[in-house]
Each structure stands twice: as structure tokens, then as C-alpha cells.
Amino acid sequence: MNSFKIGVISDTHVPDRSPEISEVFLSSLCAEKVHLILHAGDISVPQVLSLLETIAPVKAVRGNRDFLFVGKIPLVQQFEVFDVKFALMHGHMNLLVYWLDKLQHVFSGYDRQRYISRLPKAAPEAKVIVFGHTHHAENFWQNDILYFNPGSITYGDTQTRQRTWGLIEVYENGQVDGKIISCG
Description:
- This protein is an alpha/beta fold.
- It has helices at residues 23-31, 46-53, 95-108, 113-122, and strands spanning 3-9, 36-39, 58-60, 76-81, 84-89, 128-130, 138-142, 145-149, 164-171, 176-182.
- It has a single domain (3-182), classed as Purple Acid Phosphatase, chain A, domain 2 (4-Layer Sandwich).
- The longest helix is centred in the middle third of the chain and has 14 residues, at 95-108.
- The model has no long low-confidence stretch (mean pLDDT 91).
């Protein structure tokens, strides 16, 4: 059965939190022979997208730190692979939600339920919701929706500093598999 492989990254923050994207990650991404790369925001500079485009076509969305991309890339992208509806977004939604979430995070820590309650509203038809923003890798199904956050390949998880990226494979029959990959 044919499949379509998608490499998924987010929160690269080059050069504000990391000077570059690691060769280890790039080699790993190339080895997977992905058909498409998704970047779920906080790209920071256009050179990151140019580098990724040398490996495979790229779809990207704007994160809360992507000032250079205002008017150039959207906050949400929707597309289909083998009739499976995808939504790609950063997850911060807008500045008000961003600051409210920041406050909630300070007082009660990370809570993925905050994202599950709001992300489907931005793309109600999506079967796969790819998001970033938290730097915390997520790969789980709830209410027949795959919530997939690759974490961050440069900065890592804010608590563990574990650097991760993701791989989503979509099959002709509509089956979807997600995997989080450690980058060291």
C-alpha cells in the first residue's frame, strides 16, 4: 500500500534561541525520504524554510515570533493527503489567547487540554491537527483527531531540553500513523 511521508518540525527559533538547524536532524530527515515538510511556526528567519526546501516541499505557518512572515505565510493552513484532512497551525491563535495562555502556564504549568479545547475550532473538519508553540512533543488521538506537536528540534522541550521532531505517514486507505523522533 502506498504511503505519503511528512516530516514535521516546529519552533526552530533560528537564530534567536539556536544558531542553526543541526546536521544530525537534517541527515535524519533526509534518510526518511519525506514527501513534504511541515513547519508549525516560530521559524524566525526565511533561511530556515529555504534550507528545508532543499529536502522536500514545505508548508509553513506563522508563529508568535514570526514577525518577518506577516502577510507572507498564514496562521493556519488546511490541506488533504489521500482524502485525510490536515490543519497546520502554531497554536497560539492570537495575541490575547497567547498572553492568557502564558499566564495560565505560569500558574498551573503545561496543560494540553487548553489546546484540545481550542485548536479544532480553527479547523473543524481536520482529522489531523499539527501544532507547535509549546515545545512539548505530543502524538495522541482524541475524538477521532490526531493531535501532533513535534516539539522543537533546536531549543527542545522547555523542561527536559529534549529536542524532537515528528514523522506522519498517511496511507491510501486513510490510515494515519505519527511518530516522535528524538534528536539528541
